[in-house]
Amino acid sequence: MPTKKKPQVTPTPERRRELLATAAEVFAAQGYNATTVRRIADEAGMLAGSLYYHFDSKESMVDEILSTFLDELWQGYDEVLAAGLGPRETVEALVTESFREIDRHRPAVAIYQKESQHLATQPRFAYLADSQTRFEKAWLGTLERGVADGVFRDDLDIRLTYRFVRDTVWVAASWYRPGGQHSPEEIARQYLSMVLDGIAPRT
Amino acid sequence: MPTKKKPQVTPTPERRRELLATAAEVFAAQGYNATTVRRIADEAGMLAGSLYYHFDSKESMVDEILSTFLDELWQGYDEVLAAGLGPRETVEALVTESFREIDRHRPAVAIYQKESQHLATQPRFAYLADSQTRFEKAWLGTLERGVADGVFRDDLDIRLTYRFVRDTVWVAASWYRPGGQHSPEEIARQYLSMVLDGIAPRT
Amino acid sequence: MPTKKKPQVTPTPERRRELLATAAEVFAAQGYNATTVRRIADEAGMLAGSLYYHFDSKESMVDEILSTFLDELWQGYDEVLAAGLGPRETVEALVTESFREIDRHRPAVAIYQKESQHLATQPRFAYLADSQTRFEKAWLGTLERGVADGVFRDDLDIRLTYRFVRDTVWVAASWYRPGGQHSPEEIARQYLSMVLDGIAPRT
Amino acid sequence: MPTKKKPQVTPTPERRRELLATAAEVFAAQGYNATTVRRIADEAGMLAGSLYYHFDSKESMVDEILSTFLDELWQGYDEVLAAGLGPRETVEALVTESFREIDRHRPAVAIYQKESQHLATQPRFAYLADSQTRFEKAWLGTLERGVADGVFRDDLDIRLTYRFVRDTVWVAASWYRPGGQHSPEEIARQYLSMVLDGIAPRT
DNA sequence: CATGAATGAGATTTCATTCAT
DNA sequence: TATGAATGAAATCTCATTCAT
């Protein structure tokens, strides 16, 4: 993450997005609390105080990063959930969608992973807990339908399964680098294969 | 995590362990950077300054928490790795051992998850990176052996598999609560079942 | 004090006066230090930076507000003092003149009340202290003449009386609202009646 | 207001009071907004940050200064109002009490004068407006009783009279210096004499 | 004339740490 | 061992001011 030195300035709503992208990158790399606004400003090629022309506070930066990400995530998820797919296809679509989001919002996802528990205690970030709840509902419902339909095993604790699948997917954000050798779809395919069929060979 | 008010003082090495347990709990809940030493002191029923009789610094607290945990972890792992088991049995034993460690050191594991990447940049915490390397070697080796032996699938990217298994196990620390309805062995059993055989029923 | 949104621009000396009036209003309401130039700009329907086309600095705004007010005040006072009236008539004329100034320059008077002591420490605002001195001279002189002539009581500490009359009149700026039910002349009449004859009925 | 250099430290609740006294002095002299916490700390012989061991914020300092003052003020006022005095005696007692408060809490009174309007807009300082209301009720009631009883003139606007008396008394805080040549009781006596009988001699 | 973006100085606040008692 | 009070460094934030467009 070398310091960028681009004195050529881009127009206005663009600039905001650029700055948020920079901030997200640093937050993801160092952790929210360990990141100073000065560091973000350095990275953006301006002085710390100048950031406050664009944002109210450091907090409002994470806020915007996380809520933008969640808005997009739910747009994708809602489409999948509304498509009337079977449980297995729903799981496949959700996982694929998740890896696409990781691909597009990797820093945001990483921040979400590391900081959401901690941030959610503040009223301002209540939407994080809300999202968590919705998430759980969507996944648990799908898994239950799948067990009923016989496309998922019925000998597993369903909440354990939920956590297994959820964590399995999202922690990928901690190591995923966009532009790597695998596309998000390819990673999703392999993950799904492991999650659905296991790493032991089917006889 | 209610505030303890015990003016009766326990002998010194005991006290130290108590304080570290308290600190670990708070670090895990709030994150290392977001935790003030005052908060730890509050929780321990003393004033911030008093902690410095017991510890050199806040850093030395995490240090001791993490290194104690890793020492124990590797004791367990090394035993497994030295036992001359087959790859599948090794995986089973490592996962089971991991859930036992989560059971005994949940806060430490949670801290490790959240902070190790960030802390590892400091020389003092070089052992975190070392451990990471050893860890990777142990798991990758086992998986490769397993593929060679035909007990693990050969159509998967092996690094992806490694990350999948590693993350899958350790993130459990973020939701695991000791004394819950499942013992660590039971959770390990179910996780292994999912990881090895998948969540789709074997025909 | 509603936000004005007039993009139609008035010629330049007019505009200047408008902006000063706006600034004075805000300074009076919030206090000089607590007023940000952004707030003034908001109120004037422009951006903070744009004010600097019209004025050198925030300081120069108060400066102009206060000196304009004091110039007018002394014009009125000097006329009264030069008129060769008796001490009682002088007091009546000065008080009436004062309430007229409050009527026309209420925000300026309020600012003067609240900030002059503090501002007077800066060389730029030396004229505030000068005015204070002239003011004191005029009033004390008039009161002394009145005592000598027997039209004011001689059993009172004359400096106390001075402060009493001075404060009594000027603090009115803190509650006076132009266009209220009493004209400045009517308020002056009642104030004079209280100051000269007291609030207890004359037997 | 010279910098005090007393390294000898006084015990604990005492220290708090000392610091508040120092802060009040500076706030009164410079205005709340124009006062930096560094300035207060300098005056107290410590570093700016050290003040935060004793107080949450600069705001909480004024808060404590003002509320302490108002509590004491109302203790005195309530005693007077409960004493069942006639209207004229009540006025005399209230004015005397007021000058005593000015004597004991001069900086607090000065701060109250200058900043209360501005501070009262914040929820935290709602009690300032409450006090204002109570104050008005007490004075207006007394004045009305007096008019009805014939001990005060009936040809004056009563609200004007109220403001006249109120301001007249409290602005004294801006020039009063404890330990001056007049005791608070003596000042109260002269003020009352002016307010009740006017500055023109009774024939 | 006004905007949008930034600067730079300084203000408040936080917090790990120290130390005399 | 613990307390109470402070230090000192750094972090967040504020704001008057500048300037190219």
From TrEMBL, chains A, B, C, D:
Keyword Transport (UniProt): no
Gene3D superfamilies xrefs: Homeodomain-like, Tetracycline Repressor, domain 2
Domain HTH tetR-type intervals: 13-73
GO BP, sorted A to Z: regulation of DNA-templated transcription
GO molecular function list: DNA binding
Organism from which the protein derives: Streptomyces californicus
InterPro entries to which the protein is assigned, alphabetical: Homeodomain-like_sf (IPR009057), HTH-type_TetR-like_transc_reg (IPR050109), HTH_TetR (IPR001647), KstR2_TetR_C (IPR041490), Tet_transcr_reg_TetR-rel_C_sf (IPR036271)
Keywords, alphabetical: DNA-binding, Repressor, Transcription, Transcription regulation
Stated name of the protein: TetR family transcriptional regulator
Domain of life: Bacteria
Transmembrane segment boundaries: none
Residue spans binding DNA: 36-55
Pfam name, any one: TetR_N
